[in-house]
Specification:
The structure is a single chain. The protein contains 39 helices and 41 strands. With 1294 residues, it is of the alpha+beta class. The strands form 11 sheets. Strands 2-1-3-6-7-8 form a 6-stranded mixed sheet, with helices on both faces. A 4-stranded antiparallel sheet has the order 14-41-40-39, with no helix packed on it. Helix 10 runs antiparallel to helix 15 and helix 16 packs across helix 19. About 13% of the residues have low confidence.
Length: 1294
């Protein structure tokens, strides 16, 4: 570590890093459009949506009780459990008991599914079960069938997979094979087995199901299998996956016989869970808070399970919330959706099953299911359920006496816990377990607003939160709430829906139904609602209409267009953006909406968005106008064509917009025009290729009824042989040219690749083109614009435009097929011959123009054409005009599919992801500013920024000490010297890092000065021109590198300063056009204002152009007032408003940006008599400006004075001069000199020059190519013609 670094370490201490000035310096090119890839959120498969929703509408209740007779293999205790469906069968006759138990069981099921068809089989026979199962399966079709089996009066299941029923006389037990039962029930089905050793039934059921599937596979592979057997076995495939089983106990377990319990405890839990749970809690010896409740008092709890305002209904509500929450937290998402959201009855049974598992486990039984579930009986939420029961039972005596019931605080407590989760903890923690409870709270009007607010805050965490909420089942609830008239819910509901649609846009179909979209349209119309919520409403409507004709039609007929147009002047840019996107989605491929927009002058009102301050709004305006360009009917309508042309000319003004997202949308919109008028653009392409004027063509009818097309000979080129090109003859059977093409299609393609250098500039008020000449000019201008965009500095833009150009080229090549027309010559005069390549393009142009005239002739449809030399050809009718253009006019009808494919390819070739990217905004936190790493004082990113700012502050405090050090040290010390691969054009030190950027003609390399090593090298991607300027963007923080090339293109790169990182292009645009050709080119000269985010660009032009990089717009063009180029430029260190420029005529000019452009030139110094090579600003002392010119004259300027304060004669023929901004050091060299002169400008003393490289027998330096001082250190970088890069220091090093 050198001495300077040690001194910096001492200064590297601040008391409060939050007070450092770097925190207040704005960052440039750090918006989402710069740091993100412009693409939408990756849409996951709709795992939450239930695509195969099912119903259980047929229920078989098979009760094998045989009351009064115990099974022979079961020894029951005395007393033992006797209650069946809470009925004592011994208290009445067996037959009556059977009927009442069956009726009661059916009533218990009807609570959960009242619309199902039930059939009781009381002590059934084998034939009864078989007949009913087959009948119900036939009736149920694809719906689920339920089979409930109570085997308390029959023997235990056998190891062979048999359960027991009775014979007709009830004298024998008859085995019922599960294999047969599967065949009768088929699938989908659900089975409930309430008997001892029920787990054995589940095992054998799965065994038989697999056996059936294997049999089917074997029969399917057998060639001689019968069709009947094949169809029978086919129903067995998938049997196990579509069957659900609930069994009361394990394989070797017996049902509990405690006389305090019902005999059908498992069934009671499934069908009467609240009653069973309350009675069970009164039986428990421990864990009870209320000891005065009795078994019978439970039956006195008022209310019903369906009324949430009653104690019983409230308990059922809480029970549903708890069981759903347990299941959602423990079970896989797909299994939860299948069991708890697919079927109403199945969901109720499985909620109740969780209670059954808990109660049965307390008596030594472990219920079994298929599919297998994780154990839930020890989940901590059961304690909350016990507390809720105790709360109810504690109030029961008072309620029975007539006192009011106090609601349970369960939901308030759970919402509080959910709120705590939202406020505390890490964002990547597990989702809150209370989420399903919040879903249940939405059912309560008193808690609904708070629940929606909490839900909205949860959804605001990101897409993962939205997916979790949808998996819980939130969607039908929030969809139903759109019918609510409560205005208080509007803001939070539109926010929730914006979150949902940002993650899953397929929900648009649900909003198109039943007028749900009107909820958001009403919000958008209400100007009293905050703009944030109107923006979300516009987003929801846009997604609803995206490629959805039902949504488009509904919104159109409810005045969406005037509603959006009325608010285009809103100050909020996000609202303006989404109003434009909403309109674009409305009239996308929807002609009726487009013409409604024409009546409302929508396109005229959208034009002003093209000049908006925000790039995203400009891109949205381009998106909307691009969709406004019709791609369907109405070609013959002049008004229709004029509107499209007006839109095209307005859009063309943005072809050099600084923002890539605007230019990408521009390409997509212009491709709509190219698609719409493809024939005309093919002609424009050939005109550009052949440099022809559009021929004047007239038509006439011969005596035989043929159409004759005459073309002015003054516009027809002749071949080198003198004969005219070219006449075509086409018969019905073949097509042949009278003259063959003398050039290949490759020549045609290669000759059309020129890019037009300039386009006419038009303002917001451009007029409509009505004349034929203007229309022809329109297609030419648009085609030039597309070609310019195909050479864009941003690869994504150029690639999109290049696709459009390539497709048109391919169509032009195909257009070389001849036409069945006679080309008559109006004059015999010939014009000079053209090259062979030109003749091919001319003929293609003639062919295309002829085809265009014929196809669009409205007066002579379906006319037969022939040449004048053949009068007896078979007639051939022109095909009727297609809705989509033809790539060749005379393709047979069999080729129409190929033509359509070409058109679809053209229409789809320039699609962008801008709309999807805009939708992604709502998928991430938007309601409140989340604590990011940058703002979180405990985040890694914050600490990194704090360290950088403290380092910068230490360097700035150390820099003033360098002045005194430089006066004492006369000798320089070479830090390193290295050979580089290309001649450098520009050198630029990073102000705070020991890094040096070295730019050659097309490449940029980053060097570590302290180590003398190259850190990275990358291409600037400039095919034309060379790099002439470098600037650091955000040098105080994460640094970007800006490069400027002499063709006027500016590019910004990131990750350049990070070791082992690949540099990426952030943005690029053409800052200057029409660069002048001069004998001594200055290229592009840049000056960067970090504090204001303003870029000053000049060079071989007559203006200084100011760019606002935050808005990505041109601010103003300041005329230089000079007849020569601007060769160098700097800013006054005491004011950001003053620009100092050196010019090729030797003048030094001072401009005040605050003045009008014509008055900006406030001072002109003309003391130099040759080209000014540098102007440098001193940031110490009197803060003067130092300028130097070719003849070696150095001038020192005080801008408050009208002439220089001093001068210094340096080296003759000086062409490089650089001064240190904080130290009175200046380095310069002459044109042919092999030494670098160093001056102390405080006393004009000459220091030791740099002549040799360090080392024994060090070689003499070559002619210097460029110099650069480090702005905060005493370092000088030098590059020479021998491609050696070296650096020197005046700081003492150890």
């Amino acid at each position: 570590m050198d001495k300077v670094d040690i001194e910096l370490e001492k200064l590297f201490r601040v008391n409060d890093a939050s007070e450092l000035p770097d925190w207040n310096i704005p960052l440039s090119f750090m918006k989402p459009r710069h740091v993100e890839e412009i693409r939408g959120l990756a849409m996951d498969e709709e795992l939450w949506r239930i695509k195969d929703r099912m119903k259980t509408n047929n229920v078989i209740l098979s009760l094998c009780l045989n009351i009064g007779v115990d099974p022979p293999d079961v020894v029951k205790t005395e007393p033992c459990a006797r209650l069946e469906c809470w009925i004592n069968p011994l208290a009445m006759s067996p037959s009556k008991a059977n009927e009442q138990i069956g009726r009661k069981l059916q009533q218990q099921y009807e609570r959960w599914q009242p619309r199902a068809r039930y059939k009781q089989l009381l002590d059934p026979t084998l034939e009864d079960i078989k007949k009913l199962c087959i009948t119900y399966r036939r009736t149920a079709k694809s719906d689920r069938l339920l089979f409930h089996y109570n085997g308390h009066g029959v023997p235990k299941p056998t190891v062979n997979g048999e359960i027991w029923v009775f014979n007709k006389s009830y004298t024998q037990y008859i085995p019922l094979s599960l294999y047969d039962l599967q065949g009768w029930m088929n699938f989908p089905s659900i089975y409930i087995f309430d008997c001892s050793m029920a787990g054995l039934v589940v095992d054998r059921f799965k065994q038989f199901a697999r056996q059936r599937e294997q049999e089917f596979l074997l029969q399917d592979a057998c060639e001689n299998s019968s069709e009947v057997n094949g169809s029978s076995s086919a129903s067995s495939l998938g049997l196990l996956n579509h069957s659900i089983i609930l069994a009361s106990c394990g394989t070797e377990e017996m049902l509990p016989m405690n006389p305090q319990l019902p005999a059908d405890l498992f069934t009671s839990c499934l069908t009467t869970p609240i009653q069973t749970s309350l009675k069970w809690i009164t039986w428990k010896k421990v864990g009870r808070l209320v000891n005065k409740s009795t078994f019978d008092s439970v039956d006195q709890i008022p209310g019903t399970v369906s009324d949430r305002k009653t104690p019983m209904g409230e308990l059922n509500w809480i029970f549903t919330a708890i069981t759903d929450t347990i299941a959602w937290n423990l079970f896989p998402r797909e299994l939860f959706k299948r069991l708890y959201r697919q079927d109403l009855l199945v969901a109720s049974l499985f909620r109740n099953y969780l209670l059954a598992e808990r109660i049965m486990h307390s008596y030594g039984c472990a219920p079994v299911t298929h599919p297998e579930l994780l154990p839930t009986y020890q989940h901590p939420l059961w304690e909350a359920w016990d507390l809720a029961q105790d709360h109810c039972l504690n109030q029961l005596p008072a309620v029975l006496e007539g006192k009011p019931y106090k609601s349970n605080p369960f939901f308030k407590d759970q919402m509080k816990a959910f709120q705590v989760w939202l406020v505390t903890g890490s964002p990547d923690r597990r989702p809150p377990e209370q989420l399903p409870i919040i879903l249940q709270v939405l059912l309560s009007q008193s808690h609904r607003f708070q629940a929606l607010e909490l839900l909205g805050r949860f959804l605001d965490l990101g897409p993962w939160a939205v997916n979790h909420a949808l998996s819980v089942g939130i969607f039908p609830y929030v969809l139903k709430l759109l019918q609510s008239k409560n205005r208080e819910l509007q803001p939070i509901l539109v926010f929730i829906w914006a979150k949902i649609l940002s993650v899953d846009r397929t929900c648009q179909t649900d909003l198109s139904k039943e007028g749900n979209y009107m909820y958001f349209l009403d919000i958008l119309k209400d100007s009293n609602i905050q703009y944030e919520y109107r923006t979300m409403a516009a987003f929801v409507l846009a997604v609803t209409m995206e490629k959805n004709i039902k949504g488009q039609t509904a919104c159109l007929h409810n005045q969406l267009i005037p509603t959006c147009l009325k608010q285009l002047n809103e100050p909020n840019p996000l609202l303006r953006r989404w109003l434009a996107l909403c309109l674009g989605c409305l009239w996308d491929d929807y002609e009726e909406a487009r013409w409604t927009g024409v009546k409302e002058c929508a396109h005229d009102k959208l034009f002003k968005l093209l000049w908006d301050d925000i790039p995203e709004v400009r891109a949205a305006g381009v998106f909307a106008l691009g969709k406004f360009v019709s791609t369907t009917s109405g070609e013959g309508n002049d008004h229709h064509v004029n509107i499209n042309h007006t839109i095209g000319m307005q859009l063309l003004n943005l072809y050099q917009d600084p923002s890539p997202i605007v230019r990408k949308e521009l390409v997509a919109s212009l491709s709509q025009l190219v698609y719409r008028y493809c024939q005309q653009f093919q002609i424009a392409s050939l005109q550009a290729l052949d440099n022809l004027v559009l021929p004047s063509i007239s038509t006439s009818i011969t005596a035989q009824g043929w159409v004759k097309i005459d073309m002015d000979s003054s516009l027809v080129r002749t071949s080198s042989g003198g004969h005219r090109e070219r006449a075509y003859c086409i018969s019905n059977s073949n097509r042949k040219k009278e003259e063959e093409d003398e050039s290949s299609s490759d020549d045609l393609q290669s000759s059309s690749e020129g890019v037009f250098d300039s386009l006419p500039t038009m303002g917001p008020g451009s007029s409509t083109y009505k004349k034929v000449a203007s229309v022809d000019n329109f297609y030419t201008l648009i085609w030039k614009g597309v070609n310019v965009l195909s050479k864009d500095a941003v690869p994504e833009v150029s690639k999109l435009a290049g696709r459009v150009v390539q497709i048109i080229k391919e169509l032009v090549q195909e257009s070389s097929l001849p036409l069945p027309v006679t080309v008559g010559i109006l004059s015999a005069q010939s014009v000079p011959s053209s090259p062979v390549r030109r003749s091919s393009a001319s003929a293609s142009l003639v062919n295309l123009v002829s085809r265009h005239q014929v196809q669009h002739s409205s007066t002579l449809p379906r006319t037969t054409l022939q040449t004048s030399s053949q009068s007896a050809l078979p007639s051939q009718q022109l095909p009727p005009r297609r809705q989509l253009f033809d790539s060749t006019a005379m393709h047979n009808s069999d080729d129409e599919d190929d033509d359509d494919d070409d058109n679809v390819k053209l229409l789809d070739c320039a699609k962008t992801n801008f709309f999807s990217w805009c939708c992604k905004y709502f998928a991430f936190p938007i309601i409140k500013v989340q604590k990011t790493d940058d703002a979180d004082p405990f985040g890694d990113s914050y600490f990194q920024r704090e360290w950088r700012f403290a380092r910068n502050d230490a360097i700035r405090h150390y820099t003033p000490q360098l002045a005194s050090r430089a006066e004492k040290v006369r000798n320089n010390d070479q830090m390193f010297v290295n050979k580089i691969s290309e001649k450098p054009q520009v050198l630029k030190f990073h102000p705070y890092q020991p890094l040096l950027s070295v730019a050659s003609k097309t490449n940029i390399s980053i060097w570590d000065i302290e180590n003398g090593s190259e850190q990275c090298t990358f291409s600037n991607l400039n095919e034309q021109g060379k790099i002439t300027s470098l600037e650091y963007i955000n040098p105080h923080d994460v640094t970007y590198l800006m490069s400027g090339t002499d063709d006027g293109v500016v590019k910004v790169w990131r990750h350049c300063m990070t070791p082992n990182a690949t540099p990426e292009l952030v943005t690029a645009w053409t800052s200057l056009t029409d660069m002048l050709s001069t004998s001594k080119t200055a290229g592009l000269v840049l000056n960067w204002d970090q504090m204001n985010g303003v870029l000053h660009a000049s060079g071989d032009v007559r203006v200084i152009r100011l760019w606002d990089t935050h808005k990505e717009m041109r601010i103003v063009d300041i005329p230089t007032g000079a007849d020569s180029s601007v060769t160098c430029m700097t800013s006054d260190p005491s004011s950001y408003s003053v620009i100092v420029a050196g010019c090729g005529d030797g003048s030094v000019r001072v401009y005040d940006k605050r003045q009008k452009p014509t008055s900006c030139l406030v001072r002109k110094y003309q003391e130099h008599d040759s080209l000014v090579v540098s102007v440098n600003a001193q940031r110490y002392g009197n803060k003067m400006i130092i300028s130097g010119c070719n003849n070696g004259d150095l001038r020192f300027w005080d801008l408050s004075k009208s002439q220089s304060v001093s001068c210094l004669k340096a080296v003759p023929a000086m062409y490089i001069c650089e001064s240190h901004p904080h130290v009175p050091l200046l380095a310069c060299c002459g044109l042919n000199s092999q030494s670098i002169k160093i001056y102390n400008v405080s006393n004009n003393a000459s220091l030791n020059p740099i002549q040799y490289h360090t080392g024994f027998m060090g070689q003499k330096i070559d002619k210097t190519k460029c110099l650069a001082f480090h702005p905060n250190r005493l370092w000088l970088a030098v590059s020479s013609n021998d491609m050696l890069l070296s650096s020197y220091t005046w700081e003492k090093r150890k």
